Amino acid sequence: MRSRNSFKHAAQLLCEAESLLIVPHLHPDGDALGSALGLYHALRQMGKTAVVVSHDPVPEIYRFLPDWEKIHLEHPQQTTYDLAVVVDQSQLSRAGRHEALARAARRILQIDHHVPLEPFADVRLVDPSAAATAELVYRLLRAMRMRITPEVATCLLTGIVTDTFSFKFPNTTPRTLRIAAALQQAGADLSFISEQVFETRSFSAVKLLGLALASLQRTPDGKIAWITIPRSAFEAAQAHEEETEGIVNFVRSVRGVEVAMMLRESPNHKIRVSLRSRGKVNVAQLAQQFGGGGHENAAGCTLETSLEEAETILVREAQRWMESST
Ligand SMILES: [Mn+2]
To answer: 197 C-alpha vs ligand 1 centroid, how far in Å?
Structure first.
């Protein structure tokens, strides 16, 4: 999976293609957007035609990324692309309504750091040991001897900063830090990025945070803690779904908690679940039981039940899971 070879093959695909479609995942995060836009800037620099499409709008906290407004929600025209570059996702269904367009491209390149689920790409640059997809994009551009412009550096460093939660998650490796240093050297402003991503929240997001945290519960042993966010809380706070980002980390921060869960009711009444863990508990495996996925310490899944039912099922399964894995 991880080899010089996949960098070489990925580079070859990028060089050969004239028209490229870049596809971040549904509910894009800083890594999906940073990787997509970093690549976009680099490809434009090479004189290629590149279009970024996203199923969901760019969350407000990422609206400082250079050219974020060039990301299309609806695809501008009917074209078959030479290459679709699918970033930060292990299943092509995560592309949302742009899945068919990506599948229709002559070739597909996957750049990702999730545990691989579905083999949908012609070339897979997949490395679960990378802290962020942006790390892989950086290494790919370096392998192609591309100049890292300040725009590219800003996008890629944003991906790394968000996926490592400011270099605090255990996925942060010496290589992550070296790449981050190189990106800073290339013109990315780390403190500006951190301020935008972590220290700037909308009024409604902070309102929602308060309502969400008021629902905090834990199991008697204190190892599993969770919050629930019903539609009524979104309405009371006048908040959007994207404004739940980061809330689950407060749950994880409670002393003694090994598994943190956030259950939120989406507008279509499906229950979207964010899972975080501390230490050796692998929440990706827990998420997979419900058709989801992710990383060892950060994963997610969706349940089609009521919020109350989802809460009962997940707490029970998480307890069973922890008992069997210790
Ligand atoms: Mn990522």
So the answer is: 15
Q: How many percent of the chain have pLDDT more than 70?
A: 98
Q: Which two tokens stand for residue 295?
A: 């990383």
pLDDT tens digits for 95-113? 999 999 999 999 999 999 9
Phi-psi region of 224 (alpha: psi -120 to 50; beta: other; left: phi over 0): beta
Residue-range domains of the chain with CATH: 4-198 (3.90.1640.10), 203-325 (3.10.310.30)
- Distance from Cα 114 to the centre of ligand 1, integer Å: 7
Exposure string of 18-53, with b = 16+ CB inside 10 Å and e = fewer, is eebbbbbbbbbbbbbbbbbbbbbbbbbbeebebbbb
Ligand 1 centroid to residue 221 C-alpha, Å? 32
C-beta separation of 85 from 11 below 8 A: no
Q: Cα separation of 215 and 211, whole Å? A: 7
pLDDT computed for residue 326 by the predictor? 61
Q: What is the C-alpha to C-alpha distance for residues 87 and 94, in angstroms, rounded to an integer? A: 10
What is the CA(78)–ligand 1 centre distance, in A? 29
What residues pack around ion ligand 1 (CB closer than 5 A)?
Answer: 31, 88, 133, 163
Q: What is the pTM of this model?
A: 0.82
Cα dihedral 186, 191, 197, 201 sign:
negative
Residue with tokens 């994963």, as numbered in its chain:
299
Q: Are 183 and 34 in contact (CB under 8 A)?
A: no
Q: What is the CA(211)–ligand 1 centre distance, in A?
A: 28
DSSP three-state, residue 298: strand
